[in-house]
UniProtKB/TrEMBL annotation:
<keyword id="KW-0067">ATP-binding</keyword>
<dbReference type="GO" id="GO:0003677">
    <property type="term" value="F:DNA binding"/>
</dbReference>
<feature type="domain" description="ABC transporter">
    <location>
        <begin position="287"/>
        <end position="512"/>
    </location>
</feature>
<dbReference type="Pfam" id="PF16326">
    <property type="entry name" value="ABC_tran_CTD"/>
</dbReference>
<feature type="domain" description="ABC transporter">
    <location>
        <begin position="5"/>
        <end position="223"/>
    </location>
</feature>
<dbReference type="InterPro" id="IPR037118">
    <property type="entry name" value="Val-tRNA_synth_C_sf"/>
</dbReference>
<dbReference type="Pfam" id="PF00005">
    <property type="entry name" value="ABC_tran"/>
</dbReference>
<feature type="region of interest" description="Disordered">
    <location>
        <begin position="508"/>
        <end position="534"/>
    </location>
</feature>
<dbReference type="InterPro" id="IPR003593">
    <property type="entry name" value="AAA+_ATPase"/>
</dbReference>
<dbReference type="GO" id="GO:0005524">
    <property type="term" value="F:ATP binding"/>
</dbReference>
<dbReference type="GO" id="GO:0016887">
    <property type="term" value="F:ATP hydrolysis activity"/>
</dbReference>
<keyword id="KW-0547">Nucleotide-binding</keyword>
<dbReference type="InterPro" id="IPR027417">
    <property type="entry name" value="P-loop_NTPase"/>
</dbReference>
<dbReference type="InterPro" id="IPR051309">
    <property type="entry name" value="ABCF_ATPase"/>
</dbReference>
<dbReference type="InterPro" id="IPR017871">
    <property type="entry name" value="ABC_transporter-like_CS"/>
</dbReference>
<protein>
    <submittedName>
        <fullName>ABC-F family ATP-binding cassette domain-containing protein</fullName>
    </submittedName>
</protein>
<dbReference type="InterPro" id="IPR032524">
    <property type="entry name" value="ABC_tran_C"/>
</dbReference>
Length: 601
């Protein structure tokens, strides 16, 4: 593969920090690199150096003649008076760009909801970001550098971007380097990973899952001071390997040692124990939305229906992810649960012992303590916090678990980074001991290590958890089921995010979609005839037999993975496809079993 560009022995220092020390990296045709590392360790700086926007103190960046480079950075600015269309396609004639399938795909995937003639100055920050990304992708580049490209994209947008980048160049042509905290996106588009840490760049083969596997092995062999970090990564790896075994099969090295590391790691959550704790804290009643609809004035004397006919009985210990496009009504739905939004019709019933807390995107609750030092803020809280009914942690230990150092305890809250404020906000909420926790886009400003730490803490949280997030990895990691807000209605997704993307694509394309499924099966069966009951009982027995066979088949499939040749990529891919089909069937069978069981009560 032809060399495109590279950095030779680069070093860079700022007055308060050394960023890189004698680093050499290169890019060739076909490279697809994901860049990970802690906030502040130099990921964005690396992209700017490679793209020629920042000059290193020592060393040089070389580029093959004729190679074109495009970059999206976090501070992209577009002229306030420029029109959206001109920003994206420039002075190209309409017949020229409209006849280009790639440009049409970019416009449809990123900016179809933004007026073509709107001024950039009239757009929201998220819209401006999407226009900047569309402007970049509508041109041809040999090398693309993307710094947090998934910011302000919803789950559909992230899925579209991943698909676009995977097919943008022919095989073994072009190069991509992406800095992102979106771990699903990293796994989807990256064939190699660079970790930026301690003034170096360490390469790993494979995407995020493979990187975690190799990093566990590296940390196992490292000094004892890495032990706490290693334990967290082992837990992360255990989830990755159980959830999608083939994802870690790409690297060309033996994985037996890494598999041995997680052989005694239990599932990330003890669902039965957590549900028992949740019931003991909440009782059986949490929040019920009973035939709820919400409408707001449309400004023209009428009403705009946001939610309609919502029937949702939230259970103690439930861990639910909510999906939907921007503006679909997700925040309104959470507002109904939290009691900050009143229904236009229907009724919201809240249990007597319910204590709801919301981790939102605004960080407003930190305004009153902005001048206080972190230690002072923590000192005013409770003396200990019990993790999942088990060991008690002091607030200081919780801070450490969330990545704070002892030196940061003396830092005023106002001087914390965005990610540190986010973690402090979560800590203060947990110390207040709510039993229903609502997370609204909780991943903002957090790097991959801190996301793993937050997920680890949530694994042992014994309450009802509701999550709205565009971070697909987090959503699938911390929740046990997903719902979608589609056309104002709440729909259960037995097939998870993949089912949502299929439904969303069909809806946006104007295709007919199946009618929304009831979010909760009707309880009781007062109108069931004898014949109908016998038919339902027969189907229930058949479903139970099929569930047992599918469970055995899934176990056999995992055994097949364990004994498979790790270099037989085609064979592993076939096994993964078969496993995915079995797991999808299992989810549908479980849903049908629940429906029939409720029907026969």
């Amino acid at each position: 593969m032809a060399h495109l560009l590279g950095a030779e022995s680069i070093s860079l220092s700022y007055p308060t920090k050394d960023v890189f020390d004698d680093v050499t990296v290169g890019l060739s045709d076909g490279d697809r690199i994901g860049v990970v590392g802690r906030n502040g360790d130099g990921k964005s700086t690396l992209l700017r150096i490679l793209a020629g926007r920042t000059t290193p103190d020592a060393g040089r960046v070389t580029r093959r003649g004729g190679v074109t480079v495009g970059m999206l950075d976090q501070s992209d600015t577009l002229p306030e008076d420029e029109r959206v269309g001109h920003a994206i396609v420039g002075d190209r004639a309409e017949h020229e760009w409209a006849g280009d399938a790639k440009v049409r795909d970019v416009i449809r995937g990123l900016v179809r909801d933004i007026p073509w003639d709107a001024r950039i100055g009239e757009l929201s920050g998220g819209q401006r970001r999407r226009v900047a990304l569309a402007a970049l992708l509508s041109h041809d580049w040999d090398v693309l550098f993307l710094d947090e490209p998934t910011n302000h994209l919803d789950i559909e947008g992230v899925a579209w971007l991943a698909a676009h980048l995977k097919t943008r160049w022919p095989a073994n042509q072009g190069a991509l380097v992406a800095v992102t905290h979106d771990r699903w996106f990293l796994d989807e588009v990256s064939t190699d990973t660079w970790e930026v840490h301690d003034r170096i760049i360490e390469p790993f083969e494979g995407g995020y899952a493979a990187y975690i596997l190799q990093r566990v092995e590296r940390d196992r062999m490292a000094a004892a001071t890495e032990s706490k970090r290693q334990n967290l990564l082992r837990k992360e790896l255990a989830w990755l390997r159980r959830g999608a075994p083939a994802r870690t099969s790409k690297p060309k090295f033996r994985i037996d040692a890494a598999n041995e590391l997680i052989s005694d790691v239990p599932p990330v959550r003890d669902r039965v124990a957590l549900e028992k704790l949740a019931v003991s804290r909440l009782g059986k009643d949490v929040v019920d939305l009973l035939d709820v609809s919400v409408a707001f004035p449309d400004g023209a004397g009428g009403e705009r229906q946001v939610l309609r006919d919502i029937e949702w009985r939230i259970a103690p210990g439930e861990r639910t992810g909510i999906l939907g496009v921007n503006g679909a009504g997700k925040s309104t739905l959470l507002g109904l649960v939290a009691g900050t939004v009143a229904p236009t019709s229907g009724r919201v019933k809240q249990g007597k012992t319910v204590r709801i807390a919301v981790l939102d995107q605004r960080l407003a609750e930190l305004d009153d303590i902005a001048q206080d030092r972190v230690a002072e803020v923590i000192g005013r809280q409770r003396a200990s916090y019990r993790v999942g009914g088990g060991a008690e942690l002091t607030p200081g230990q919780l801070l450490e678990r969330l990545g704070f150092t002892s030196a940061q305890l003396s830092t005023p809250v106002k001087d914390l980074s965005g990610g540190q404020k986010r973690r402090l906000q979560l800590l203060l909420i947990l110390l207040d001991e709510p039993n229903v926790l609502i997370l609204d886009e909780p991943t903002n400003d957090l790097d991959t290590d801190m996301l793993a730490a937050m997920e680890d803490l949530l694994d042992s949280w014994p309450g009802t958890l509701l999550v709205v997030s565009h971070d697909r990895y987090l959503l699938e990691r911390v929740t046990d089921q997903q719902y979608a807000v589609l056309d104002g209605r709440l729909r259960h997704l037995p097939g998870g995010v993949e089912e949502y993307l299929r439904l969303s694509t069909a809806e946006s394309a104007g295709f007919d979609t199946p009618p929304p499924a009831a979010t909760q099966p009707a309880s009781g069966a007062p109108g069931l005839t004898g014949a109908e009951r016998r038919t339902a009982e027969k189907e229930l027995a058949a479903v139970e037999r099929r569930m047992a066979r599918v469970a055995d088949a899934i176990t056999a499939q995992h055994d097949a993975f364990a004994s498979a040749d790790p270099f037989d990529y085609a064979g592993l891919q076939a096994l993964q496809q078969q496993l995915a089909e079995l797991e999808s069937e299992q989810r549908h069978l479980e849903t049908r079993w629940l429906e029939l069981s409720e029907l026969l009560e």
